[in-house]
């Protein structure tokens, strides 16, 4: 139980093993740039226009927010509140799910789950959520309505992922189902990240700079700010918009589009006001799938920068390199 950060009370000081050296700490934001917000229904639902907006946002930022996305707002609220209740359970009950075993379908861990030299200000409930029938038996029994909310959420997420992947493919001029099948075939995994209030946010980080490994990540972040992306060497806040969902591109999207879309580096900062909870769902290729730049996106002027490889090999390298894009891609560069 000592392993978990949140034990039911707010810290008055930052424990030493959470203090980052000055160069790694969060800095004051220099500027605010508005990350694109895309209306998925839009004016009369002009599919082409929506696909174009998604393409432009992906090219520039590697992240965008969507509204009118079709996921019931009550379900989003319920997921946020039921998982929040999970983190308010007595620490011993949460600790019963604690595990360092990366292959467990459901587990609680803290920081990154590896033996970090400096810890991150975050606990995480990790759940494989889809296909529902394969995983629902492992989801926590408490709070009592958690299983039912996760089940409905997983199904809604799958639907949304299909719609978003199709729009991305269309924006790229690829066939509509390009990302279906193996390229998004790994079971859907969600991380419920819980960042307790931190007495001195200037010393800590919720999550370090990283790029998600897969194709896209779908994120709920409630009403509390904390997500930042790296854009032209500057950290920009992705502040919450009521009822919006954040979509960010993972590294495989950058590789499959031969660098056209950006896998975005991002991190989470802490605050001293209130807890922050985010739910990230990771769309990943199945481990055996073959990854390569899409043939339709390469030509003489724009030759392939990456070799083809099996996703399992990339993933092992990603884990070793702690989510660092350059290092993870190095063996696969042409
Ligand atoms: O909490 C957030 O906003 C970011 C979470 C995240 O990047 C992740 O879980 O991979
Ligand atoms: Fe992430």
Can you characterise this structure?
It is a single chain. The chain is an alpha+beta fold and 334 residues long. It has a single domain, classed as Jelly Rolls (Sandwich). The chain is 26% helix and 20% strand. The protein contains eight helices and 14 strands. It has helices spanning 47-60, 73-87, 91-95, 132-135, 146-172, 251-256, 311-320, 325-329; strands spanning 37-39, 63-67, 106-110, 123-130, 188-195, 207-210, 216-220, 227-231, 234-237, 245-249, 266-268, 276-283, 290-291, 309-310. The strands form three sheets. An eight-stranded mixed sheet has the order 1-2-10-7-12-5-4-3. α1 (47-60) crosses α5. The chain is globular, with a radius of gyration of 19 Å. The protein starts with 36 loop residues before the first strand and ends in a 5-residue tail after the last helix. The model has no long low-confidence stretch (mean pLDDT 94). 2-oxoglutaric acid is lined by residues 191, 193, 207, 212, 219, 221, 226-227, 266, 268, 278, 280.
Task: Based on the model shown, name its key terms.
DIOX_N; iron; Jelly Rolls; binds 2-oxoglutaric acid; binds fe (ii) ion; 334 residues; 14 strands; globular; oxidoreductase; dioxygenase; 2'-deoxymugineic-acid 2'-dioxygenase; 4-stranded antiparallel beta sheet; alpha+beta
Number of strands: 14
| Amino-to-carboxy terminus distance | 47 Å
Please identify the top-level CATH class: Mainly Beta
Percent helix: 25-40%
Shape: globular
Number of domains: 1
Structural class: alpha+beta
